[in-house]
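Methods, example record. To illustrate the input and output format used throughout this study, we show the complete record for Monoamine oxidase. The sequence lines were provided to the predictor; the line carrying structure tokens was produced by it.
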Amino acid sequence: MGTRENKPVDVVIVGAGLAGLSAALKVKDEGLSYVVLEATERAGGKVHTEISEDGKRFYEQGAQFVNSEMTGIVSLIKESGMELEHTDISEESIVINEKNKRVIELRESEGEKLLDNLSITSDAPLSEVLDQSIDTKWEKRMLKSYIAAETTVNSEHINAKSAGKLISRITTHENELKYQANGPLNNVIAHLEKQLDEAIHYCEPVVSVMRSGGKYEVRTENNNVYTAKAVVLAVPPTVGTRIELDNQLESHFGRALDSYLDGSVIKLTFVYADNFWSHHKVNGKEKKVFGVIYVGNEGVNVMDSSKGEDENRLTMFIGGDKAKDLVNVPPQVRENFALDRLTEVFGDTAEEYKDVEESIWVDSPYYGGGYGAMVHTDGNSDAELVLGKPFEQVVFASTELAPKFPYFMEGAIRSGRQSSERLINDLKR
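The corresponding predicted structure is encoded as:
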């Protein structure tokens, strides 16, 4: 098959997730010509909704939760014709350990204080920092499990200094899980796609970005070549490593890209007729359980994902190494694993579910895994600064690089906007 040249543009945006779509809108608003190249048959990346055959029930396969401080995604939810609904959480809701039903006060733990301490300077594994700083064995195990579930990477693989910097970029004063959209988040993606006209080219996996004659040639697996003055690589860093870069770009961005380790998560949502976890006995008293951290199964947690008048739902997140262990077993084995964990806490009632939906984000060649990639122990703790700053009219954008709310939808939006603004400023010089 011969090479097919396309009409030159000012900017090529690689990736049509929230970061790429947001970057494209900024470029469009500046009156520049552009094209968006998406490797798969759909836009949205890790924002994807599965709708039941009868259309009465939908599940967010990936990103799901927001709060009012996440102004970018909240605006898009409302612009796409939806409203926010409260997640079923209150001041009285508690998080417990699975074995002894012990109430977990994360913000009062020594580990949480440690993670909030932004003076962490060691590139050692985060697990080592926790081991050296926390005396209680149970608290160490609890926090490691919490971290593996929240970041979808086990703490032994995470660069401690980078983790401290990451926490400093999550500055919200409101629960990150406070709201959900009252409709499918696919609506947000469709709203963005509509604004970008015919500029998105689907099923165009990019294989190389090369400099030629003062411009860039972006080549896809289909042997299509797109020529541009500038390029926004709106893909997770781990996906970026699979794209061949011009020697000068590789020299500049290579180590930063190689600094990341993909997260891994399996998400199972169970639908119930009754929210039995709202009347759960803890130490002889009836309590509303919002979440469970499984200290004995590192990387596993459960949360109440019910909202408004919707059905009662519990969502289990299996993150990090545990997700990698379970990804290759039959679906029924994963479901049984999840049900065993739920019955361990709530009894046989947990087996009386109406429906269950599973989504897997492990080792995706185009979306990455988990909620995002984390800087590993041999990586550059400043990698996000390198990738998010334009070099020779090329810049990266992804939720990992966000100035605020990294690893959330809001982070992807802000990273896409910021990276494209910086690139546009470079082009104007």
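Annotations derived from this record:
Residues 219 and 396 are 17 Å apart (CA to CA).
The chain is about 30% helix and 25% strand.
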